Amino acid sequence: MSKQSKRREALLYHAKPRPGKIQVVPTKKYASQRDLSLAYSPGVAEPCLEIEKDTNNVYKYTNKGNLVAVISNGTAVLGLGNIGPEASKPVMEGKGLLFKIFADIDVFDIEVGTENIEEFIETVKNIAPTFGGINLEDIKAPEAFEIERRLKAELDIPVMHDDQHGTAIISAAALLNALEIAEKDIDKVKFVISGAGSAAISCVNLYVALGAKLEHIYMFDSQGFLSTDRNDLAAEQQKFKNPDYQESLAHAMENADVFLGLSVGDIVSQDMIRTMADNPIVFAMANPNPEIAYDMAVASREDIIMATGRSDHPNQVNNVLGFPFIFRGALDVRATKINEEMKMAAVYALAHLAKEPVPEQVNIAYGETKLIFGKDYIIPKPFDPRLIATVPPAVAKAAMESGVATAPITDWERYEDELYERMGSDNKIIRLLLNRAKMAPKRIVFAEADQLDVLKAAQIVHDEGIGIPVLLGRTEIITELMEQIEFDADIEIIDPKSDEHTEKRNYYAEKHWKNRRRSGVTMYDAQGLMRSRNYFAAMMLNEGDVDCMISGYSQAYPSVVRPVLETVGRFDGVSKVATTNLMLTKRGPIFISDTSINIDPSAKELAKIAQMTNYTMKMFGLNPVIAMISYANFGSSKDPHALKVREAVELLHRTVPDMVVDGELQTDFALNAQLLQKKFPFSKLAGKKVNALIFPNLDSANSNYKLLKELNSIESIGPIMLGMKKPVHILQLGASVEEIVHMAAVAVVDAQQKEKHQKDVKAPE
User: Fold this and answer.
1) pLDDT tens string 465-498
2) Looking at the DSSP assignment, which residues form a beta bridge with residue 468?
3) Are 460 and 742 within 8 A, CB to CB?
4) Cα–Cα distance list, 255 to 14, 182, 183, 207, 593 (Å)
5) Distance, CA of 176 to CA of 589 (rounded, Å)
6) What is the mean pLDDT of residues 106-110?
7) What is the DSSP string of 179-211?
8) Which among 64, 89, 95, 684 is annotated as catalytic?
9) What is the reported pTM?
10) Mean pLDDT of 183-187
11) How far apart are CA 443 and CA 684, in angstroms?
């Protein structure tokens, strides 16, 4: 994708379907006149009067306790500089989005039109009663230091400048673990710092608080070494003057134990890394290009412990590991400030979490067999679901112990449950899916690449590194469309009907005929079928010329299912394939099966569908909790339709007792954990959060998933094929570009999983 295309895509993302990235939504009913009279006049007077009596009641009756202001004047926007308050708003909205998806914190972004310190401080102080916390963002130094210092002193709510403290907290956690691995003491190591801005200053201040010695710190800014004879330094930089003059960064790095880069890219060479002490720790965190590229650094010596700010390499120092969770903990105890004790608690919590066994969900997301504490894993991954229940409690406890908490927590087990529940509205599963696909991209044949939306999806798949597209269709149309969308990559294009591919077509035909000759297929038939893109694509997959297949955008579902069943076939032991749809609901991801194929499955077939759904959910890194759906509950009806579901459940309980599955159950009981626990405490699902629904027939499953999708604007991934021998996935007619991209990622992950399964099967031999 060209630079211009990427620019248009970014602009379109922010402009459509409605401008911006965040919105305000009601949290109370508003359908009736009674609702409105409670929400506003006259009912609203009652909470107003209660707050007037006791200001702390504002936390009881309003959203103040979960509302953070992201405030900037746009004077130091990352990579863009002083672009002004209006131009910084998209960044602040983005920060608000991260607060919401990682910690369920609501945000108002506030852009202040002044560079005057006093005016800025006064503005923030005047609006502070609205908020439970203040996140300062993208304010240039040295003003940022003074603004934060004053606001922390003059306000009674948490204030944090994330540009300073976020990086400091995450890098400090990584540093503690790196030093442990390197077997070095923080008070004895030599630090070289490239960069002397607010982030670097904050990092080093925190390192000093952890035990680093000032005399062991050698800091450089754009003008050179911070020596004792410098008289151009800000007050915050003065303490880092070192009398041991260093003529250059290269000279300083000789025998250094730790390098911290928060400056500009590509200023450190391999030779400079080689001069460092044994087991050197290199944190090159300039964005978008680190001070030395990761691959170059690790190639320079084997004993290096390397971290960057990038997500495409191990040990990403990412602020998102810190600020959402720090504010979450501070808000939940109504802390009056974020103090050093709370920041230090976050450091130790993150450092400790990296040493704990990693959930399979995280291993799957990052394409790892097993993430283990060591050189390549010194800091938790941003997608680790344990962060929400690890960092906030640590911060909250530190707030209580340091005396700044005004609403202490007493039931920590309940608090942890509440934190996990908050994440029910967040759907990290797409990010997990895409990230895992990128770890080992596979060749994907798009059987309808001469359709514009399919081609756009293939372009995204290519540009994002999700997979390697192979484009099937009319060559002249594909090339013309590629020019239109500026898709200029070197991509294989195949027209199954062209003379150019006659040899390959005949080869596939002979293979297909040999497989199907006892099913009434003649050689002539096979040759004709190979002119069809779905048969041709399926044979490409069969013969290993591609790793996975996507089709179905422009054709009815059955017309695509038949070719792939006749060519690719079913997985061993599967008599009938099925499909599942992943619904990204407010309560979390829910799988619905079978949504597209089996009209009225038998009890045995239902049980198999449940098993295949269970397997697929594990592929996504989820722990399946499956409800077998009916109009009846546990024997309340003797009708054959209900009996069929009951029989399927009995079969599953008998043959796969480890599966967490039960029924027959009505949908409301399945989805309402409290109701299920109260009425049916004996159920295997009691006290658990159901995340899969197996419906008794195609009518109910298909209707329900489409009802959810359209009425509630719920995003859906699928139908995901279950039981196919090879990774082939069929789109719904007219699927959106985004849906096609997601299905392509599913296909890649499916291919990865099947490849791993084959290796596991062969391993004993």
Assistant:
1) 999 999 999 999 999 999 888 888 899 999 999 8
2) 443
3) no
4) 48, 14, 16, 19, 61
5) 36
6) 95
7) HHHHT--TTT--EEEE--SHHHHHHHHHHHHTT
8) 95
9) 0.75
10) 96
11) 41
- Token pair, residue 247, equals 């003529």
Mean pLDDT across the stretch 277-294?
A: 91
- Name the token pair of 682: 């004996």
On the 0-12 / 13-18 / 19+ scale of CB atoms within 10 A, 549 is buried
Pairing state between β 224-225 and 217-221: antiparallel
Q: What is the pLDDT of residues 409-458, one digit of tens each?
A: 999 988 988 888 787 544 567 877 887 888 889 999 999 999 999 999 99
At 565 the pLDDT is 87
Contact 378, 181 (CB under 8 A): yes
Q: Provide the CB-side half-sphere exposure for 376 (13 A, CA).
A: 12
| Percent of the chain's residues with pLDDT above 90 | 59
> Measured between alpha carbons, how far is 390 from 387 in angstroms, rounded to an integer?
5
Q: How much is the average pLDDT of 741-752?
A: 92
Strands ordered across the beta sheet of 224-225? 224-225, 217-221, 191-194, 258-261, 281-284, 305-308
Per annotation, catalytic residue among 13, 30, 40, 61: 40
**Pseudo-torsion of CA 7, 13, 18, 22, nearest 10°?**
-120
Q: Give the pLDDT score at 718.
A: 82
* Whole-number Å distance between alpha carbons of 26 and 518: 63
Query: Domains (ranges, CATH) in the chain?
Result: 10-23+36-157 (3.40.50.10380), 165-312 (3.40.50.720), 321-424 (3.40.50.720), 432-567 (3.40.50.10950), 578-723 (3.40.50.10750)
SS (H, E, C) 365-412: HCCCCCCCCECCECCCCCCCCCHHHHHHHHHHHHHHHCCCECCCCCCH
Nearest one of 226, 154, 232, 235 to 198, comparing CA atoms: 235
**Dist. CA 504–CA 509, nearest whole Å:** 9
pLDDT of residue 364: 66
pLDDT of residue 756: 78
Which residue from 729, 708, 719 is spatially nearest to 461, judged by alpha carbons?
729
Place of tokens 């546990």: 634
Q: Provide the H-helix boundaries in 550-672.
A: 557-567, 603-619, 640-655, 667-671
Q: Which amino acid is at 163?
A: D
The DSSP bridge pattern shows strands 578-585 and 588-593 to be antiparallel
Calculate the CA 412 to chain-centre distance: 27
Beta strands 305-308 and 692-694: pairing type?
A: unpaired
Which among 280, 294, 315 is positioned nearest to 189, based on CA atoms?
280
- 95 counts as catalytic: yes
Q: What is the mean pLDDT of the segment spanning 255-268?
A: 93
pLDDT at 569: 83
Residue 616 to residue 47: CA distance in whole angstroms: 49
pLDDT digit string, tens, across residues 586-618: 788 899 999 998 999 999 999 999 999 998 888
Q: Let me know if 337 is a catalytic residue.
A: no
